Automatic annotation (TrEMBL):
InterPro entries: EF-Tu_GTPase, EFTu-like_2, GTPBP1-like, P-loop_NTPase, T_Tr_GTP-bd_dom, Transl_B-barrel_sf, Transl_elong_EF1A/Init_IF2_C. Belongs to the TRAFAC class translation factor GTPase superfamily. Classic translation factor GTPase family. EF-Tu/EF-1A subfamily. This is GTP binding protein 2b. The keyword Nucleotide-binding applies. Residues 173-401 form the Tr-type G domain. Residues 595-611 have a biased composition (Low complexity). One of its GO terms (molecular function) is translation elongation factor activity.
Length: 611
């Protein structure tokens, strides 16, 4: 048996680790408070001396990228004419990269070092930047100024962040689509009414009346269909909306940047409409509206999951903060932060409380898929509404000019999402141009029909955001007039393509899927509603490769067969399927040719007859 006293014995003057210690510690007494204070002061003096010798390194931004719309400039003071021409050409390139927008960081070196400028140099640099912008047909807006503080530098130095935006010409404005999600009665339509009409709500839903399309929506106050609203920003960053009795055409003419809000339904019984809006209209971003007084309720989690499954960047707006106390609002924000940080989401919530936060959030939001800005505002009092406008004004596009050019070089492909009959105009289709360029008078083919054929037609006129347009480019949404083309031959989910394309159609396809949720097991013979782009149709599971059945969270390659008519699909397209509580996501991996579809359908029918 070991003697505890002997095992813990140490040499006189040494501590347990063999190091010299004070006499008071040897005797088992704590060092006196006076001696500890003396040693603490000496330690602080040594640390302060080290800090004076080693100056704190200045902060950095990431190094300047060759591509993209962000440019670093140390200073722009009195450039020569040759230098000025070179700077203007550089600005033109950055504007082209940002599709009409560029951000200049003044007082920053190319490696990202924040050097800063004196008051006089900063004023001269901004004056030069304004001249450069005027030369290329753009305006500048000072987003923010920040002081650069160094320990030994007594002079105040600043860096400036400046937004440069092209003046609109020939409807070449930057157009971003934002899908509006959230539970029923969370204030989605009211918020859009306030943003687009320029008037605050009266607390009883007056602001949302202009957004509703059906009588039952006005009577119940609940959106059941998909509606579109526009909010513009001019080249100086000022809001352009319906507030001064403008028409949609005037808003388009005055705006350099357009935000198109896609107002989706919040009620669970209209979920298929919401899913169609998310998959078909290709939103750039999603805005999830959460009511401060109810928190995360109803379809909120489901809508958040849908946006994340389709990889749509999402930001959150906590509305109705005027109805509840500050403590209730903070509790709702904490609840959102917990959900966003969960392993399934892995998001970094960022609460926006001032204009500087709004600028930072807009820039980091597109650079990192993890950042999720959270706004707390009121549509009645107008609290923090300006922060959301600042964020939307600065929000850059996800795709750059090179990706846009590549899509425009491809053959024309227009997705049909809506079909109308307009008096004195005829048949009109609405949708998004996926690739190529579409002009007035162009001849295209539309299909597939129930028999799998494509029909010839001619594009009459084009409208974007309710105003006439001559040329439609890839990624833009519009309505096309088709004259006296028979409306009964058209349906949602069709495509209008160039006759040169020779489009492929299929009744069966294979997809790599993940089963997000299923009450029992997912097996051969199951029927689900499949959403692929603007295609929405019921499909039967023909087989699961390598497995007999699937359970929640499992992956497999599955063959689906459409039950009604063939569809036009693309390999690699994102896919979402649902049936009741069953939900899954994936992407199309293979299209089965029509001959193979026909042979397999015959064998399938024979098996059924034998059975």
């Amino acid at each position: 048996m070991v003697d505890l006293d002997q095992s813990t014995a140490v040499s006189p003057g040494l501590c347990r680790h063999g190091q010299q210690c004070s006499g008071s510690a040897i005797n088992g007494k704590k060092p006196s408070k006076k001696s500890r204070t003396r040693r603490g002061k000496r330690g602080r003096r040594r640390r302060n001396k080290r800090n004076r010798n080693n100056k704190t390194p200045p902060p950095f931004l990431p190094p300047e990228a060759e591509e993209g719309n962000i440019e670093y400039k140390l200073k722009l003071v009195n450039p020569t004419q040759y230098r000025f021409e070179h700077l203007a050409t550089q600005l033109k390139w950055r504007l082209q990269e940002g599709r009409g927008e560029a951000v200049y960081q003044i007082g920053v070196e190319d490696n990202g070092l924040l050097v800063g400028l004196t008051e006089a140099d900063m004023k001269a640099s901004l004056k030069t930047l304004k001249r450069m912008a005027e030369k290329v047909g753009a305006d500048i807006t000072l987003l923010r100024e920040r002081e650069v503080d160094y320990d030994l530098d007594r002079n105040t130095r600043k860096i400036a962040e400046v937004l440069v935006r092209k003046v609109p010409d020939d409807q070449q404005f930057l157009d971003l689509r934002v899908a509006v999600l959230g539970n029923v009665d969370s204030g989605k339509s009211t918020l859009l009414g306030v943003l687009t009409q320029g008037e605050l709500d009266n607390g009883r839903g007056r602001a949302r009346l202009n957004l509703f399309r059906h009588l039952h929506e006005i009577q119940t106050g609940r959106t059941s269909s998909i509606s579109f609203e526009i909010l513009g920003f001019n080249s100086k960053g000022e809001v352009v909306n319906y507030s001064e009795s403008r028409t949609a055409e005037e808003i388009c003419e005055s705006s350099s940047k357009m935000i198109t809000f896609i107002d989706l339904a919040g009620h669970h019984k209209y979920l298929k409409t919401t899913v169609f809006g998310l998959t078909s209209y290709c939103p750039d971003f999603a805005m999830l509206v959460v009511s401060a007084n109810t928190g995360i309720a109803g379809t909120t989690r489901e809508h958040l999951g849908l946006a994340m499954a389709l990889k749509v960047p999402i930001f959150i707006v906590v509305s109705k903060v005027d109805l509840c106390s500050r403590g209730t609002v903070e509790r709702t924000v904490r609840q959102l932060e917990r959900v966003l940080k969960q392993p399934g989401c892995n998001k970094v919530p960022m609460v926006v409380s001032n204009p500087d936060d709004a600028v930072t959030a807009a820039q980091q939001f597109t650079q990192s898929t993890c950042v999720t800005p959270i706004f707390t505002l009121s549509s009645v009092s107008g609290e923090s509404l300006d922060l959301l406008k600042v964020f939307l004004n600065i929000l850059p596009p996800l795709s750059n000019s090179k990706e846009q050019e590549e899509l425009m070089q491809q053959l024309t492909e227009f997705q049909v999402d809506e079909i109308y009959s307009v008096p004195d105009v005829g048949t009109v289709v609405g949708g998004t141009l996926y690739s190529g360029v579409c002009r007035e008078g162009e001849r295209l083919v539309v299909g597939p029909t129930d028999e799998g054929r494509f029909l010839r037609l001619k594009v009459g006129s084009i409208q974007r955001n309710r105003s006439a347009c001559r040329v439609l480019r890839a990624g833009q949404a519009a309505t096309l007039a088709l004259g006296n083309f028979d409306r009964s031959l058209l349906r949602k989910g069709m495509v209008m393509v160039s006759p040169k394309m020779n489009p492929t159609i299929c009744c069966q396809f294979e997809a790599a899927i993940v089963l997000l949720f299923h009450a029992k097991t997912f097996r051969r013979g199951s029927q689900v509603t499949v959403h692929v782009g603007n295609v929405r149709q019921t499909a039967t599971v023909e087989c699961l490769h390598g497995k007999d059945e699937l359970r929640t969270g499992e992956r497999a390659v599955v063959r689906f067969r459409f039950i009604k008519h063939p569809e036009y699909l693309r390999v690699g397209a994102k896919m979402l399927f649902r049936e009741g509580v069953t939900k899954g996501i994936g992407h199309v991996t293979r299209l089965l040719p029509p001959s193979q579809n026909h042979d397999q359908n015959q064998s399938h029918d024979q098996n059924l007859q034998e059975y």
